[in-house]
Structure formats: C-alpha cells, structure tokens
Amino acid sequence: MFLDETIDHNRRFVENKEYVRYQTSKLPNKKVVVVSCMDTRLTELLPKAMNLRNGDAKILKTAGAVVSHPFGSIMRSIIVAIYDLNAHEVCVVGHHDCGMTHVNATATTKKMIERGISVQTIETLDYAGIKIKDWLRGFDSVAESVRQSVEVIRNHPLIPKDIPVHGLVIDPETGELDIVENGYKSTPDFEK
Q1: Are 153 and 75 in contact (CB under 8 A)?
Q2: To 10 degrees, what angle do helices 73-84 and 142-154 make?
Q3: Using the 8-state DSSP alphabet, how is residue 184 labeled?
Q4: From CA 12, how far away is CA 41, in angstroms rounded?
Q5: Which distant-in-sequence residues (6+ apart) come within 8 Å of 160 by Cβ?
Q6: Where are the beta strands (DSSP E) in the chain?
Q7: Which of 64, 67, 98, 123 could, after both became Cys, cross-link 149 (CB 3.0–4.6 A)?
Q8: 102 pLDDT more than 90
Q9: In a 3-state reduction of DSSP, which class is residue 95?
Q10: Which domains are delineated in the chain?
Q11: Which residues cross the membrane (predicted)?
C-alpha cells in the first residue's frame, strides 16, 4: 500500500537526516515561477533540463500546464510567487505527447457516471454554469495551449507589466526545450 510504504520510508528519511541536503530558503534563488504539466515524465527531467536545483524556482504543476481561469488556484499561486516570494519571471512549460491532447470530456464524463457520479449531479453543475464538457476540454496543439496560458498570465490585471512571461515546450523523452514565447520581447523594461 502506497501510504504505508511512504510513511515507513519517511521515518527512515527523517531518522537518517536525509532532508539536510534539501534545505533551502522559501524564496526562489533564480526568481522564477514555472508552470508545468503534472506528467510523471517531467518530475525529474524538467528541473534538470532547465538547470533548476532545489530552491531555484517555484514549480506549479497542473494538467497540460494550462492556466484555464484568470482567478483560479494556479493564477493565485503565480501572483503570490511574484508579490510575496520574490519571483521576477514566469515560465509556462508544456510538453509534446501531453495527455491533455487526448482528453475527451464526453468519455471522461461517462467514466464519472460509471464510477458513481450521478447524471443529476452533472446536470446540476451544467445548469449552475459549470459546463463539464468545457471544463474538461483538452487541446489540439501544445504550442497554442502554451501561448494561451502565457496570454492569460501576461494580460492579468494583477500581474505587473515588467514581469516577463515565457512559453516553452519540452520533449518528455530528451528534455529538449523549444521557445514558443520569449517574454523578454514583451517586457522591454525588464532588468535581467
């Protein structure tokens, strides 16, 4: 069982003081917040490919690296990172072969019903303005999705205009990064 294994490992981890090598400040050394996909292939690959060590960046993970709502939890975390945790840049990193390109809201809704979520619940949410099919929507192009997330962040009324917002796409096999949006071009007053 995952939880039992985790707690057993954690006891040894703490007893052996393995945590010492991970100790750092809560402020990101490289003054950057990274929004990335939750894909398991990126857990260690992304920081290595971006030359990020423990303590260098605030890393936010969400399905598809999508910032879908300007006042959702991802956007709130970006704002806190900028104003309270000294982040000076934002980087949205999507990846090739993303699972969000395969998400089918209709099929996912059907799986919900098969797992016990009532049709009435889904209809009630729909009636209340939460369109499950829109909310669970995937995307066709990772580069376009990254651009859209960059725009949501860049145009947010609470993001200062001197914050560069970059967009990248990473290859989950090799770690190669492609620039989709160079935030420095949109923020000429940014001091590197």
Answers
A1: yes
A2: 50
A3: G
A4: 26
A5: 82
A6: 32-36, 57-61, 89-95, 165-170, 177-181
A7: 67
A8: no
A9: strand
A10: 24-101+140-186 (3.40.1050.10), 104-137 (no CATH)
A11: none
Rg (CA), the chain: 19
Q: Are 113 and 122 in contact (CB under 8 A)?
A: yes
Lookup: tokens for 105: 């809201």
Q: Are 85 and 79 in contact (CB under 8 A)?
A: no
pLDDT recorded at residue 54: 94
- pLDDT, tens only, 125-178: 988 888 888 888 889 999 999 999 999 999 999 999 999 999 999 999 999 999
Looking at residue 131, its amino acid is: K
Quote the pLDDT of residue 136: 87
Question: In the structure encoding, which two tokens stand for residue 156, read together?
Answer: 């947010």
39, containing H or E segment: none
Q: Compute CA distances 136 → 139, 156, 181, 190, whole Å.
A: 10, 22, 25, 36
53-73 pLDDT, tens digit per residue, is 999 999 999 999 999 889 999
- Write the CB contacts of 148 (distance below 8 Å, at least 6 apart in sequence): 66
Classify 177 as helix, strand or coil: strand
Number of H helices, E strands in the chain: 7, 5
Predicted local distance difference test score (pLDDT) of residue 155: 96
pTM above 0.85, yes or no: yes
